[in-house]
Amino acid sequence: GWVAALAAAVLPQWRQSSYAGDAIITAVGLHEGLWMSCAAQSTGQVQCRLHDSLLSLDVHIQTSRALMVISLLLGFFGIIVSVVGMKCTKVGEEDPITKSRIAVAGGVLFVLSGLCTLAAVSLYATQVTHEFFRESTVPINARYEFGSALFIGWGAASLTMLGGSLLCCSCPAKEQRGQHYYRQSQPSTAREYV
């Protein structure tokens, strides 16, 4: 899920040219993402240009950028915390309850990362939908529709939240949190049984 969120964040296909309408224009396909806009020629040549100024961008692009960066940071720290909390690692293995709590903390970070990804992708998709159906003089084949990065982002958010939820299920039960019972050794007797 985190790798898919990283791929969605860097891909320039957050929105693409619409091919709906009567006159289909196939000579140039336009793609826009969070960081750059690209024009793909029918000959296969692709030209991309980074967005010039951060302050001149629309609010939904700035917000989606911020949410995706926060999502990637939360996911990165979630990976580190979850690895520490796994039962197969040696860090903190003397206290299994603490290890379980560390794994739960990693799961919470993953859930928060997935929610940030979901919010960023959904906000951008709402803006694309609003601009597509808005009454304007722009012909329908010159408008934008959903790009492939939005679908990758929705999948990434689902996988990240699912993984985080599974990690949150590793919380120890209440009976295990309380007292620890140790088996006492039996006093030795003169007769041993074989």
UniProtKB/TrEMBL annotation:
The cross-references to PROSITE patterns, in alphabetical order and at most eight, read: CLAUDIN
- Keyword Chloroplast present in the record's keywords: the answer is no
User: Disulfide bond as a keyword?
Assistant: no
Question: Where exactly are the transmembrane stretches of this chain?
Answer: 66-86, 102-126, 146-169
Record-linked Gene3D superfamilies? 1.20.140.150
Q: What does this protein do?
A: Claudins function as major constituents of the tight junction complexes that regulate the permeability of epithelia.
The similarity annotation says: Belongs to the claudin family.
Per its record, how is this protein called by name? Claudin
- Which organism is this protein's natural source? Fregata magnificens (Magnificent frigatebird)
